[in-house]
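ugh finaly. both done.
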Amino acid sequence: MGPMTDLRSALHGFLSDPRPDPSLGPGTPAAVMVPVLDLEEPSIMFTRRTDLVRDHKGEISFPGGARHAEDHDLLATALRETEEELGIRAGAFDVVGGLPPTPTIVSGFVIAPFVGLLAAPPALRPSEEEIAEVLDLPIRTLRHVEREVPAPGGLHPTMYSYEVDGSLVWGATGRILHSFLEILDKGGWA
């Protein structure tokens, strides 16, 4: 078995069914894709947002965004947004399940994250308006650089940050990444 087969096995049974929609609670519904790349060293694809976008300027995030009226469910939102931002068609993903919903602290979104495996590195067409940079960060590296950041005054969820080669993943993206890595640990992925 290869690294991606082992990773898939580790995720099995720990992710939620991607349909129907999870219960999100209060906030603006949004969805992201956690793209896992089948490389020699399995990696996760992130985007660095431009300074032209309305929310989270310059931050590292997963591709995704707010639900639109035409999205029949939140998985459709994640897939549509990923295609708009990166040019990756929905059919390229093997969507293996969902992670727990995650609220943003400042912008009022509640995010439904979905894990999608990519068998091969896709041809990318990043949106010039939304995407400043695409980052592929190895999962093993991310596991080793995780830092827990206490929430100010205990009012917010625990924060997690990851710094790799000067790129900082934090906020809601850091909490989603922590959830993903925690599931890999539970599933015994080495």
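ok and the 2nd:
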Amino acid sequence: MFQAWVKNGNIPFDPSQKADYDMRGFYRALMSGDPRAANAVNPNDGMMHYPDTWKTPYHETFSKESQWALPTAPAWAPDDKLIGSNGRIIYDEKVR
């Protein structure tokens, strides 16, 4: 069922050991009714976005919101900037 969901929905899925997103975990959560498993269009780039909950440490915007994050992981600021524990901007969604 997962494979069909990926194919029919044109879902970005990387099956490698170093995938930057746990799409299988997202799918399991979606099928179980987990309210965190919701996707939406990101207003900054107009592309589909999946929650940080299932981002792996390989993702360029890995944050405290991931289930695998340590307390020192970067955090999102209200202005869509990812801020490191040292206060430096790691990523700015509004600048591409």
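summary for the 2nd one i guess: The chain has one domain: 19-92.
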